[in-house]
Amino acid sequence: MGITYLRRRASESVSGNVKSGSMEKVCKFWAEGRCVRGGRCRFVHSWSRGDLYSYLANLHGHTKVWDHNLQCVATLKGHSDGVMSLAFCGYYLVSSSLDGTIKIWATTEKGHVETVYTHEEGHGVLALNGITLPPKTCDAKEKEESDDQNNILLCSCNDNSVRLYALPSFEEKGRFFTTQEVRTIQKGPGGQIFTGDGSGRTTVWKMNL
Questions:
Q1: In sequence order, which ranges of 37-183 are alpha helices (DSSP H)?
Q2: d(CA 59, CA 202)
Q3: Of 30, 57, 94, 144, which one has the greatest count of Cβ atoms within 10 A?
Q4: Beta partners for 113?
């Protein structure tokens, strides 16, 4: 897939997306089972949004709470703050940073690795992982269009949420909500996703197939 095509698709505007930097957060009182505002509460009363994934379970056991002394272990020239995560998602090498951006990298004809697209998230981005959705049964044209949306990037931000984006368009496909920052995202069997946050909680999310 050429760099020109990637730049064109990634820069397309997508209607219906939640704006980057929104204040959408889970209600901490609801999470503790004691929110008295109900439908009048301005915070989210759900662990997820979107129909791609839904909340499945919490795994309890850890009690150590991480501090904020995160160490940057690698740097790609282009970010203005610490690089927090690298991931391959489909054809793409993706990096995230505390500077509030997600960058897609590709090798040029001269053999240099350069940024081909920068997504402005508006929050520091802590962790990345990518999944490829199962292909749909359709004709050749529909399959080509579907393949462009089958690579899903999961990214956790320091506003206590995890975004799900289709690459390369960065169309938002859903969002997970947590009470603390998600520091790691891992793939599991059967379309499951595992997230670990600063409270010591590991949460299991199941793809809605």
A1: 140-147
A2: 5
A3: 94
A4: 107
Classify 70 as helix, strand or coil.
coil
Residue 4 in tokens: 């020109």
Helix (H) or strand (E) holding 88: strand 83-89
- Tens digits of residue pLDDT in 192-201: 899 999 888 8
Sign of the dihedral defined by the CA atoms of residues 63, 159, 194, 85, in that order: negative
Q: Hey, how many other C-beta atoms are within 10 angstroms of the C-beta on 75?
A: 12
Bridge partners of residue 161, in order along the sequence: 157, 177
DSSP 49-111: ESSSEEEEEEE----PPP-S--------BTBSS-EEEEEEETTEEEEEETTSEEEEEEE-TTS
